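tool_log.txt
---
The assistant was asked to compare two proteins side by side. It first ran the structure predictor on the initial sequence, then on the second. Raw inputs and outputs are pasted verbatim so the downstream comparison step can read them without reformatting.
(1)
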Amino acid sequence: MIKIFFQCLLLTAGIVFILEEKSFSQVNADSSWWRKNISVGLYNLNYLRDYEYFSPIMEGYTLCGSIVQPTIVYKPSTHIEFRGGVFIQQNFGDDSLRVRPTFLLTVMNSSNDFSFGNYRNEDGHQLIEPLWFTDNLITENTENGFNFKQKFNRLELDNWIDWNRAIIKGSDFQEKVFGGLTATIFPLRNSNHKLTFPIQACIQHTGGQINKPDTSFFVTTILNADAGIKSKLKNRNTNNFISEFSAEAYYVFYKEFSPNPHLQFSEGNGIWALIKLKSKTGIAIEMAYWQGTNFISPKGNTLMQSTSSVYPENNYTEKQRNLIFLTVKYENEIASHVRLLFSGEPYYDMKNKLLEYGIHLHLIFTFNEVNHLPAGKFKPRKIIDP
């Protein structure tokens, strides 16, 4: 495994330097060029996510470990950036180690950001919890494909394709592709109040033509979508303990578009609503309600599904899911480049009369990890500024 790690590092470094026409002697002779165009970055996520669940829909488990991703960054201009690095993940208590090279080419300007390669999806493309489970940050930290973001004065767009699993001729498994589009409309946005209308849609496709025929294989295409409204108020009085209040509500939709529908439910819907209070100390309280009917979402929170991950062989289902969530969290930058997130998340299952909880801890270190397209006002432009 150590050998693979160093091979990845050498491969990454080799590709970065091949991209530059200058020789090694020329680079060493011009240290200002080196400082201007070449840098290093580091992302480190340490996590503990524990679920004390005994639900017939989702059983409890614990994720505890660390993700480290060192990168070499080559930026020949303000519009182009290439990152080559290594993704390393260790789940504590497990001797296995996930190691693989990562490459990402980004072309950007003040309102467009196009990335192709292995990109990190920390915000879940801003998808809501029924469509994107927070645990995916651990289990599917890096996506493979492209991500195109655009920001305008009153509109933000994020569309992507994530190639989960590829096949070759004769493969004894199916390919998986996940893609989607999120749009956020801003009819009102100022320093005190922000009103937005999010519209989100994503598709999970499982299939393939050149894999080995198998009667247990089904071509499956699942659409999940939602439309909602979100209002956020900021308190400009710095003496007040509450610094921010927000409320949001969504209508959520599910539909199976498989050639031969075979899932327990072919169509479903739900309501997701939540309110948040955030303090100036970094403490926040969230209360949310989920009502789902015949709902299935491959990337969404397992607890919100109408199908069971505990008893899949028995096809156990609950057509109606009614859940109340309460989250108390603390999030703050405790040192330079270091961010801490701790949360306790009890929930109540109204149908099964279950009161259960989860505890989450994240400690994140980042260095030279630029967040593309920072918040602000944007105007439509060409992909490269003149």
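(2)
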Amino acid sequence: MSNLTHLECSRCSRSFPPGRLYNLCPCGGPLLARYDLARLRSRLRKEALGGATLWRYQELLPVARAENRLSLGEGGTPLVPARSTGERLGLDELYIKDESPNPTGSFKARGLCLAVAMARELGARKLAIPSAGNAASALAAYAARAGLEAHLFMPRDAPESNIREAEVYGAKLSLVDGLITECGRLVEKGKEREGWFDVSTLKEPYRIEGKKTLGYELAEQFGWKLPDVILYPTGGGTGLIGMWKAFDEMEQLGWIGPDRPRMVTVQAEGCAPIVRAFDRGEEAAEEWVGGDTIAAGLRVPRAIGDFLMLRILRESRGTALSVPDSEILAAMRRLAQEEGIFACPEGAACLPALERLAARGWIRPEEKVVVFNTASGLKYLHLFSVSSQTGRQP
């Protein structure tokens, strides 16, 4: 049984009944899952949550039938105190939410777990996705688990690890000359002809449901109190939007109060459409021409949830920053050497952003701060060259 009551357009508020496959609202807005939270408030106790994976929150997730609750061990990731980095920056309570232990090595497992589970429950047989890399790996894994076809479209220069993963999982892979936006156009062009269900970021309602469990976990790990600041590397932004949704649901359940973290979007200087739009005071983000960064997951020139991200940043009194690739690469080494966490470039991008905000006094020493590392640095070994003779980088 599911407590899902309906789907609601995030743009025009139109309501849709559950029980069938949906992509976007006719107005073009992403659809959001809504639950009977008033009923759950009286019967669901946060103290009674059990289990180690994200399915501990199953009553707040849309999958009705137990046999469709696919799992490879996703969720339940560590919240690591970053004492050395915090001491260096003068921050008393700095934490890293490390998503690298997830299946396929990234936070994409959360969203694709739910997307594939619901697609199977609702009768889809062929799934398609445009991806910079990690989402493709996750879809390939969960589609294999579910016995569904996965059709992946990745830029030709996507990380080699993601390409090899897709092949090993048996997915049908197309490498594209262009960025993720061109991959998305190919999915859109072929989905009716090929019978694919499109599980692109925010183009179906359930990836965000997996990502919102980030917010539930953070609250639970902090004793049902939210941090003061969250720094989040932002490409498509599903995690940012999902956490904000989770905070609202938890307040309606009576699990937390009305206070919210200040949300910080971090992007790469070579592809920063949300940062540019935020700085200009715009409500939507113009597509970024080109897009060049070592952080493949941040190379998203246009995000369908741009208006939602910008709204969240302003409602939370947050901000948006971009950082150059040179600082990202240096931050990967610094986090590894200071904290023992080999972060992906997307997660590492948050460190120079944090350093700037701390230096400006935008973050106060006593505030509780969470930085998200969204994947394992082991998936990006191509960024590092090591001398076979000395064992050190030349």
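---
observation on (2): The first strand starts at residue 4 and ends at 9. The radius of gyration is 20 Å.
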